[in-house]
Design a protein that fits this description.
The protein is an alpha/beta fold and 385 residues long. 21% of the residues lie in helices and 26% in strands. The chain contains ten helices and 28 strands. The strands form seven sheets. The chain has a seven-stranded mixed β-sheet with strand order 5-4-1-6-11-8-12. Strands 14-17-20-23-26 form a five-stranded parallel β-sheet, with no helix packed on it. A five-stranded parallel β-sheet has the order 15-18-21-24-27, with no helix packed on it. It is elongated and about 65 Å long. 42% of the residues are buried.
């Protein structure tokens, strides 16, 4: 980097639409892809982009996320100068509260940013699955002499009304921001990835903090104020894979995408590696009669039965006769003998009793199995087709 850059990674999302998966975890800490957590993708992007100063803003249920990040060693951020810092809400003499919006999360950690006197501030989200070179976005930002640059991705027009849409001129300068418009003018959706000129954005953040009518959010408040003052805002087009895993269905889809040849570089790229902070487990064991097809099997697993188009996390055990198809089995779950699972997500540490049959339906296209199994195994452990 030829300029000083500080990245702020917002990782406090509660992720209520993920149900039991986020019962005791912040959304970025949810297990993903066999041996990763969702936040590992953004952390790996930071590492591969050679950004060496990172503040991770946590909020909801931060214990596991903080433990996972640690001192940042898997991502090369265990250093005395810069490195990674986990930043939690705190109280001062005037009291304290949770962050009320994305901009508020930065304002409340202004002391962290200012100690590095950055030229650019990069604001990221910790709950998206994608690979992106932030260096290219920073170069684009500087080439345009921009005050703010927002990464965008083209979405289907029939889905554009679900996103914040940026309306741009031919040179990608932004003239309008529409938050979830009923009739969108284009399909350039904000990815929630921002590069700001620090000297420009700082007074806007401080002024917004005083505004009692503000939601203290970049998309709703800060960006419109920058546009109203004719600041130089540009859209940076991203054309790779990007997924916001905000629902059970999108979580399942993003995991299944890893099994498709087109998307295998998300985990297996030699030029842009994804770094996990994984436990030290013995190698997986695949039994002599086991059948494994197009699946990811993680370390510490003991596999019998038939596994097809599925992702099994660390420490999973599947027993004789098990038939697991298009499913996600989270760490240390046990799948009993002759269990049939089709398009199912099994939560961590859960044991599915033998002879249980669980299949998705039209009403429930992806089945998330939690602790209560009665509706699936019936009285006395009988099968429930």
């Amino acid at each position: 980097m030829t300029s000083k850059v500080v990245a702020m990674l917002l990782a406090g999302g509660k992720g209520t639409r993920l149900g039991e998966l986020t019962k005791d975890l912040a959304k970025p800490a949810v297990p993903f892809g066999g041996k990763y957590r969702i936040i590992d993708f953004t952390m790996s992007n930071i590492a591969n982009s050679d950004i060496s100063t990172v503040g991770i803003v946590v909020q909801y249920s931060p214990l596991m996320l903080s433990k996972h990040i640690g001192i940042g060693k898997p991502w090369g951020l265990d250093r005395q100068q810069g490195g990674v810092s986990v930043l939690a809400p705190f109280s001062n003499r005037e009291g304290g509260s949770w962050f009320s919006g994305t901009a508020d999360a930065i304002v409340k950690n202004l002391h962290f940013v200012e100690q590095y006197e950055p030229d650019e501030l990069v604001v990221l989200s910790g709950d998206h699955v994608y690979q992106m070179d932030y260096t290219k976005m920073l170069d684009f930002h500087k080439e345009q002499n921009a005050d703010a640059t927002i990464s965008v991705i083209e979405v289907p027009m029939d889905e554009a009304s679900r996103f914040g849409i940026l309306n741009t001129n031919e040179d990608l300068s932004i003239y309008e921001f529409d938050e979830k418009p009923e009739h969108p003018k284009n399909n350039l959706a904000s990815m929630g990835i921002y590069v700001f000129d620090w000297k420009t954005i700082k007074p806007y953040l401080l002024e917004d903090e005083k505004d009692e009518m503000s939601d203290h959010d970049f998309g709703k408040d800060i960006i419109p104020k920058l546009l109203a003052d004719d600041k130089r805002l540009f859209a940076y087009k991203f054309e790779g894979y990007w997924k916001d895993v905000g629902t059970i269905t999108s979580y399942w889809e993003a995991n299944m995408d890893l099994l498709k040849e087109d998307f295998q570089t998300l985990l297996m790229s030699k030029t842009w590696p994804t770094y996990p902070n994984e436990e030290n487990r013995p190698p997986e064991y695949i039994g002599e009669t086991a059948e494994v097809t197009n699946s990811l099997i993680s370390s510490g697993s003991f596999i019998e039965g038939k596994i097809e188009n599925s992702i099994l996390f660390i420490g999973v055990e599947t027993k004789d006769g098990a038939d697991v198809n298009s499913s996600i089995i989270l760490p240390d779950a046990v799948i009993g003998e002759n269990v049939v699972l089709d398009r199912v997500i099994v939560t961590s540490g859960l044991e599915i009793p033998g002879n249980t049959v669980i299949r998705s339906t039209e009403e429930e296209p992806i089945v998330l199995i939690e602790e209560n199994l009665k509706e699936y195994i019936g009285e006395g452990g009988s099968q429930n087709e």
